[in-house]
Design a protein that fits this description.
294 residues, alpha/beta, Rossmann fold, 2 domains, ten-stranded mixed beta sheet, 8 helices
Protein backbone atom coordinates (compact mmCIF):
# COMPACT_ATOMS: atom_id res chain seq x y z
CA UNK A 1 0.00 0.00 0.00
CA UNK A 2 1.31 3.40 -0.99
CA UNK A 3 1.36 6.23 1.47
CA UNK A 4 -0.04 9.60 0.51
CA UNK A 5 2.63 11.79 -1.03
CA UNK A 6 1.84 15.08 0.64
CA UNK A 7 -0.24 16.46 3.46
CA UNK A 8 -3.57 17.90 2.32
CA UNK A 9 -4.90 21.14 3.73
CA UNK A 10 -8.66 21.14 4.20
CA UNK A 11 -10.32 24.54 3.96
CA UNK A 12 -13.60 25.07 5.77
CA UNK A 13 -14.85 28.47 4.65
CA UNK A 14 -18.60 27.85 4.66
CA UNK A 15 -20.41 25.55 7.09
CA UNK A 16 -24.08 24.60 6.65
CA UNK A 17 -25.91 23.97 9.93
CA UNK A 18 -29.22 22.16 9.36
CA UNK A 19 -31.88 22.39 12.01
CA UNK A 20 -35.44 21.27 12.62
CA UNK A 21 -35.34 23.07 16.00
CA UNK A 22 -35.43 19.77 17.88
CA UNK A 23 -33.23 18.87 20.84
CA UNK A 24 -31.06 16.81 18.52
CA UNK A 25 -30.47 19.76 16.22
CA UNK A 26 -29.84 21.93 19.27
CA UNK A 27 -27.03 19.58 20.32
CA UNK A 28 -25.28 20.18 16.99
CA UNK A 29 -25.21 23.98 17.23
CA UNK A 30 -22.30 24.30 19.73
CA UNK A 31 -20.24 21.96 17.54
CA UNK A 32 -21.03 24.08 14.47
CA UNK A 33 -20.07 27.34 16.17
CA UNK A 34 -16.87 25.85 17.62
CA UNK A 35 -15.73 24.59 14.20
CA UNK A 36 -16.60 27.91 12.58
CA UNK A 37 -14.45 29.75 15.12
CA UNK A 38 -11.55 27.30 14.77
CA UNK A 39 -11.48 27.48 10.96
CA UNK A 40 -12.70 31.05 10.51
CA UNK A 41 -15.76 29.83 8.61
CA UNK A 42 -19.12 31.42 7.91
CA UNK A 43 -22.17 29.56 9.26
CA UNK A 44 -25.22 29.15 7.06
CA UNK A 45 -28.11 28.07 9.31
CA UNK A 46 -31.04 26.57 7.42
CA UNK A 47 -34.41 25.03 8.20
CA UNK A 48 -36.44 23.19 5.55
CA UNK A 49 -40.18 23.67 6.00
CA UNK A 50 -41.85 20.54 4.69
CA UNK A 51 -45.50 20.40 3.62
CA UNK A 52 -46.35 16.99 5.10
CA UNK A 53 -48.00 18.45 8.20
CA UNK A 54 -50.68 20.42 6.42
CA UNK A 55 -51.20 19.00 2.90
CA UNK A 56 -53.71 16.45 4.17
CA UNK A 57 -55.91 19.17 5.67
CA UNK A 58 -58.73 21.02 3.96
CA UNK A 59 -57.32 24.00 1.96
CA UNK A 60 -58.72 26.66 4.31
CA UNK A 61 -57.15 24.94 7.33
CA UNK A 62 -53.97 23.98 5.50
CA UNK A 63 -53.19 27.61 4.69
CA UNK A 64 -53.63 28.64 8.31
CA UNK A 65 -51.43 25.81 9.57
CA UNK A 66 -48.78 26.55 6.93
CA UNK A 67 -48.66 30.22 7.91
CA UNK A 68 -48.38 29.30 11.58
CA UNK A 69 -45.54 26.86 10.94
CA UNK A 70 -43.67 29.42 8.88
CA UNK A 71 -44.02 32.08 11.59
CA UNK A 72 -42.82 29.63 14.23
CA UNK A 73 -39.86 28.62 12.07
CA UNK A 74 -38.88 32.25 11.51
CA UNK A 75 -39.10 32.93 15.26
CA UNK A 76 -36.96 29.89 16.06
CA UNK A 77 -34.43 30.93 13.43
CA UNK A 78 -34.18 34.42 14.94
CA UNK A 79 -33.27 32.76 18.24
CA UNK A 80 -30.53 30.79 16.51
CA UNK A 81 -29.30 33.95 14.80
CA UNK A 82 -28.91 35.64 18.18
CA UNK A 83 -26.64 32.78 19.26
CA UNK A 84 -24.48 33.22 16.18
CA UNK A 85 -23.64 36.79 17.13
CA UNK A 86 -19.95 37.50 16.64
CA UNK A 87 -19.60 34.92 13.85
CA UNK A 88 -20.04 35.51 10.12
CA UNK A 89 -23.42 33.96 9.43
CA UNK A 90 -26.68 33.95 7.53
CA UNK A 91 -29.98 32.24 8.30
CA UNK A 92 -32.60 30.86 5.97
CA UNK A 93 -36.00 29.14 6.19
CA UNK A 94 -36.72 27.31 2.95
CA UNK A 95 -39.90 25.64 1.76
CA UNK A 96 -39.33 22.30 0.10
CA UNK A 97 -41.22 19.16 -0.84
CA UNK A 98 -38.17 17.08 0.05
CA UNK A 99 -35.14 17.83 2.17
CA UNK A 100 -32.25 16.57 0.07
CA UNK A 101 -32.83 18.68 -3.10
CA UNK A 102 -33.17 21.78 -0.92
CA UNK A 103 -29.95 20.98 0.92
CA UNK A 104 -28.18 20.25 -2.37
CA UNK A 105 -29.14 23.66 -3.77
CA UNK A 106 -27.91 25.38 -0.63
CA UNK A 107 -24.59 23.53 -0.76
CA UNK A 108 -24.04 24.55 -4.37
CA UNK A 109 -25.29 28.12 -3.99
CA UNK A 110 -23.05 28.97 -1.04
CA UNK A 111 -20.00 26.80 -1.78
CA UNK A 112 -20.54 24.81 1.41
CA UNK A 113 -17.49 22.88 2.65
CA UNK A 114 -19.12 21.02 5.55
CA UNK A 115 -22.67 20.13 6.58
CA UNK A 116 -23.49 19.74 10.30
CA UNK A 117 -26.68 18.15 11.65
CA UNK A 118 -28.08 16.30 14.62
CA UNK A 119 -30.13 13.10 14.54
CA UNK A 120 -31.66 10.55 16.91
CA UNK A 121 -32.06 7.94 14.18
CA UNK A 122 -35.87 7.81 14.15
CA UNK A 123 -38.49 9.18 11.78
CA UNK A 124 -41.31 11.58 12.48
CA UNK A 125 -43.47 14.39 11.11
CA UNK A 126 -41.40 17.51 10.35
CA UNK A 127 -38.33 15.87 11.95
CA UNK A 128 -36.31 15.93 8.80
CA UNK A 129 -32.94 15.34 10.43
CA UNK A 130 -33.95 11.91 11.67
CA UNK A 131 -33.52 8.43 10.33
CA UNK A 132 -33.04 7.72 6.65
CA UNK A 133 -33.41 11.40 5.64
CA UNK A 134 -30.31 12.33 7.63
CA UNK A 135 -28.48 9.37 6.12
CA UNK A 136 -29.52 10.41 2.63
CA UNK A 137 -27.84 13.76 3.24
CA UNK A 138 -24.52 12.28 4.30
CA UNK A 139 -24.54 9.67 1.56
CA UNK A 140 -25.46 12.02 -1.29
CA UNK A 141 -23.56 15.14 -0.27
CA UNK A 142 -20.39 15.83 -2.22
CA UNK A 143 -18.99 17.54 0.88
CA UNK A 144 -18.32 15.96 4.30
CA UNK A 145 -21.17 15.76 6.80
CA UNK A 146 -20.69 15.96 10.57
CA UNK A 147 -23.47 14.16 12.43
CA UNK A 148 -24.14 14.44 16.15
CA UNK A 149 -25.99 11.25 17.02
CA UNK A 150 -28.28 10.24 19.89
CA UNK A 151 -25.48 8.78 22.06
CA UNK A 152 -23.39 11.97 22.07
CA UNK A 153 -23.46 13.54 25.52
CA UNK A 154 -23.03 17.31 26.14
CA UNK A 155 -19.39 18.23 26.62
CA UNK A 156 -17.63 21.00 28.50
CA UNK A 157 -15.54 21.77 25.43
CA UNK A 158 -16.19 21.27 21.72
CA UNK A 159 -12.50 20.92 20.92
CA UNK A 160 -11.35 17.70 19.30
CA UNK A 161 -8.48 16.31 21.38
CA UNK A 162 -8.57 12.81 19.87
CA UNK A 163 -9.57 11.93 16.30
CA UNK A 164 -10.30 8.34 15.26
CA UNK A 165 -10.02 7.37 11.59
CA UNK A 166 -11.27 3.92 10.54
CA UNK A 167 -10.35 2.31 7.21
CA UNK A 168 -10.46 -1.03 5.40
CA UNK A 169 -7.65 0.18 3.08
CA UNK A 170 -9.82 0.43 -0.04
CA UNK A 171 -9.44 3.64 -2.03
CA UNK A 172 -13.04 4.46 -1.15
CA UNK A 173 -12.47 4.11 2.58
CA UNK A 174 -9.41 6.38 2.44
CA UNK A 175 -11.44 9.35 1.17
CA UNK A 176 -11.84 10.64 4.71
CA UNK A 177 -8.13 10.48 5.59
CA UNK A 178 -7.27 14.07 4.57
CA UNK A 179 -10.07 15.32 6.83
CA UNK A 180 -8.92 13.21 9.78
CA UNK A 181 -5.34 14.42 9.36
CA UNK A 182 -6.42 18.04 8.90
CA UNK A 183 -8.66 17.98 11.97
CA UNK A 184 -5.93 16.40 14.08
CA UNK A 185 -3.43 18.99 12.88
CA UNK A 186 -5.77 21.97 13.35
CA UNK A 187 -6.69 20.96 16.90
CA UNK A 188 -3.25 19.53 17.78
CA UNK A 189 -5.15 16.34 18.54
CA UNK A 190 -4.03 12.74 18.94
CA UNK A 191 -4.81 10.74 15.79
CA UNK A 192 -5.84 7.07 16.11
CA UNK A 193 -5.84 4.90 12.97
CA UNK A 194 -8.07 1.82 13.14
CA UNK A 195 -8.60 -1.28 11.03
CA UNK A 196 -11.18 -3.87 12.07
CA UNK A 197 -10.57 -7.43 10.92
CA UNK A 198 -13.85 -9.23 10.50
CA UNK A 199 -14.11 -12.40 12.55
CA UNK A 200 -17.05 -14.47 11.43
CA UNK A 201 -16.55 -17.41 13.76
CA UNK A 202 -14.39 -18.01 16.76
CA UNK A 203 -10.78 -18.38 15.62
CA UNK A 204 -11.86 -18.09 11.98
CA UNK A 205 -10.94 -15.02 9.90
CA UNK A 206 -11.99 -15.15 6.27
CA UNK A 207 -10.61 -13.09 3.43
CA UNK A 208 -8.73 -10.69 5.66
CA UNK A 209 -5.14 -9.51 5.82
CA UNK A 210 -3.07 -10.44 8.85
CA UNK A 211 -2.77 -8.14 11.84
CA UNK A 212 0.89 -7.56 11.03
CA UNK A 213 0.03 -6.52 7.46
CA UNK A 214 -2.75 -4.28 8.74
CA UNK A 215 -0.40 -2.52 11.15
CA UNK A 216 2.07 -1.98 8.32
CA UNK A 217 -0.60 -0.54 6.03
CA UNK A 218 -1.85 1.77 8.79
CA UNK A 219 1.69 3.02 9.33
CA UNK A 220 1.95 3.95 5.64
CA UNK A 221 -1.27 5.88 4.99
CA UNK A 222 -0.45 9.16 6.77
CA UNK A 223 1.87 11.47 4.82
CA UNK A 224 5.29 12.05 6.35
CA UNK A 225 4.81 15.80 6.08
CA UNK A 226 1.38 15.76 7.76
CA UNK A 227 2.55 18.12 10.51
CA UNK A 228 0.79 16.24 13.29
CA UNK A 229 1.33 17.10 16.94
CA UNK A 230 2.15 13.48 17.81
CA UNK A 231 2.72 10.18 16.05
CA UNK A 232 -0.54 8.41 15.11
CA UNK A 233 -1.60 5.48 17.24
CA UNK A 234 -2.21 2.28 15.26
CA UNK A 235 -5.01 -0.03 16.43
CA UNK A 236 -6.23 -3.41 15.15
CA UNK A 237 -9.53 -4.89 16.32
CA UNK A 238 -11.30 -8.17 15.54
CA UNK A 239 -15.05 -8.48 15.00
CA UNK A 240 -17.79 -6.47 13.34
CA UNK A 241 -16.56 -3.09 12.01
CA UNK A 242 -19.30 -0.91 13.52
CA UNK A 243 -18.85 -2.31 17.02
CA UNK A 244 -15.08 -2.20 16.69
CA UNK A 245 -15.19 1.47 15.69
CA UNK A 246 -17.61 2.49 18.45
CA UNK A 247 -15.77 0.51 21.13
CA UNK A 248 -12.38 1.86 20.10
CA UNK A 249 -13.69 5.42 20.09
CA UNK A 250 -14.93 5.03 23.65
CA UNK A 251 -11.73 3.30 24.80
CA UNK A 252 -9.43 6.00 23.44
CA UNK A 253 -11.68 8.90 24.39
CA UNK A 254 -12.20 10.00 20.80
CA UNK A 255 -13.90 13.36 20.29
CA UNK A 256 -14.43 12.75 16.59
CA UNK A 257 -14.79 9.67 14.34
CA UNK A 258 -13.99 10.02 10.64
CA UNK A 259 -15.47 7.49 8.20
CA UNK A 260 -15.89 7.19 4.45
CA UNK A 261 -19.32 6.21 3.11
CA UNK A 262 -20.42 4.53 -0.09
CA UNK A 263 -21.27 6.49 -3.22
CA UNK A 264 -24.63 8.21 -2.71
CA UNK A 265 -25.81 7.38 -6.23
CA UNK A 266 -26.59 3.94 -4.83
CA UNK A 267 -28.58 5.29 -1.91
CA UNK A 268 -31.64 3.20 -1.21
CA UNK A 269 -32.96 0.43 0.99
CA UNK A 270 -29.63 -1.39 1.07
CA UNK A 271 -27.69 1.65 2.25
CA UNK A 272 -29.92 2.86 5.07
CA UNK A 273 -30.79 -0.41 6.71
CA UNK A 274 -30.01 -0.29 10.46
CA UNK A 275 -27.31 -2.92 9.96
CA UNK A 276 -25.01 -0.84 7.78
CA UNK A 277 -21.67 0.08 9.35
CA UNK A 278 -21.95 3.85 8.97
CA UNK A 279 -25.54 3.88 10.26
CA UNK A 280 -24.60 1.86 13.33
CA UNK A 281 -21.59 4.05 14.08
CA UNK A 282 -23.58 7.28 13.83
CA UNK A 283 -26.39 5.94 16.03
CA UNK A 284 -24.13 4.44 18.72
CA UNK A 285 -21.02 6.64 18.80
CA UNK A 286 -20.47 8.73 21.93
CA UNK A 287 -18.85 11.48 19.83
CA UNK A 288 -19.66 13.26 16.55
CA UNK A 289 -19.06 11.33 13.31
CA UNK A 290 -17.62 12.96 10.20
CA UNK A 291 -18.63 11.05 7.05
CA UNK A 292 -16.89 11.65 3.75
CA UNK A 293 -18.30 10.28 0.52
CA UNK A 294 -15.84 7.86 -1.07
Amino acid sequence: MKSAATATEIALNNVLYLTDFSDCAEAALPVATAIAREFGAKIHAMHVLLPDVYTSLAPEFGQVVAAGLEQAAEANMREIESRLSGLPHQTNVERGSHVWPTVQREVQRNNIDLVILGTHGRTGVQKFLFGSVAEEIWRRAQVPVLTIGPAVAPRASERFNCVLFATDFTAQSLAGLPYAVSMAREYRAHLVLLHVIRQFKQEEILGEISAADAIYHLSQIVPRDAGLYSRPELVIKYGEPAKGIVDTARACGADLIVLSVRDGDRFGVATHLPGTTAHQVVVNASCPVLTVRG
